[in-house]
Amino acid sequence: EVQLQESGPGLVKPSQSLSLTCSVTGYSITSNYWGWIRKFPGNKMEWMGYISYSGSTSYNPSLKSRISITRDTSKNQFFLQLNSVTTEDTATYYCARSSSTDFDYWGQGVMVTVSS
Amino acid sequence: DIRMTQSPASLSASLGETVNIECLASEDIYSDLAWYQQKPGKSPQLLIYNANSLQNGVPSRFSGSGSGTQYSLKINSLQSEDVATYFCQQYNNYPLTFGSGTKLEIK
Lengths: 116, 107
Hints:
- The structure holds two protein chains of two kinds.
- By secondary structure, chain A is an all-beta fold.
- Chain A is about 0% helix and about 55% strand.
- Chain A is built from no helices and eleven strands.
- Helices cover about 0% and strands about 50% of the residues of chain B.
- The chains are: A mainly beta, B mainly beta.
């Protein structure tokens, strides 16, 4: 069974970087696409970007200057780094598997608060 | 960006009823649409893809329809476990975008 699990700090200070890890079991990240999606307080969902089976990336232009998605295939993990965070980056962050279209497997989500 | 306008924002219905949730895209998305269910405290679950294809394991009381810019999710014979927030998502163009969600409650 495909399972995804996010991990990382729940509190980040403004202007610092947010770093999250998604650990995948039951499926290789060298297949499909692997994305990050966040849900803001109030329910708005935002696709942040993903990394493909080959390691290529695609990002939401609204984040392009601040976001980086990388991977470690030996550990079957992929990572999110979001730089220069503000309080507006407070959200629940999900990792998910995609075929570059819909998202069929999701992690349980990690709540990240940006606050001093 | 393609804007997805979802309605209603909230919905209250009785057990056994049929409910419809709508999603309007700001341009033609050629049926490149998914629907998700998110129960309280849980992660989203894919219900429908390609506007009308039922994801494996999803009960047949869920169905999707639509074309062009207008799409809908129908839930027949509403059950208590259907209490959730429902989202649409388009994948016709980048960036991928979501509707604002419909919160479904039982009367």
